[in-house]
Design a protein that fits this description.
Pfam families: Zn_ribbon_3. The chain contains 2 helices and 2 strands. With 81 residues, the chain is mainly α. It has a two-stranded antiparallel ribbon. Bound molecules: zinc ion. Zinc ion is lined by residues 6, 8-9, 11, 20, 22-23, 25.
Length: 81
Amino acid sequence: MALIDCPDCGRRVSPRAPSCPNCGAPITATGHPADRRLVTPGLLGRLTAVLGAWLVFPWVARLLAFLAGIAMLIVMFTSAR
Ligand SMILES: [Zn+2]
């Protein structure tokens, strides 16, 4: 695994480290590709599940989205008063 430079102190640190062991700067905040891959699976899995539900049960998903939109409008109007 290649080391990356800490954005704060410039020390060589592992991209898998959550923070720099020298200065404590968060390594994940640098947007390094290796760190993005660690974050993606959860979000991608959730998106795939939502997309799969939308494709398998289109009318159910659209009805839920429609009801959610109506509920949001009701909350917005009642809170505005
Ligand atoms: Zn550092």
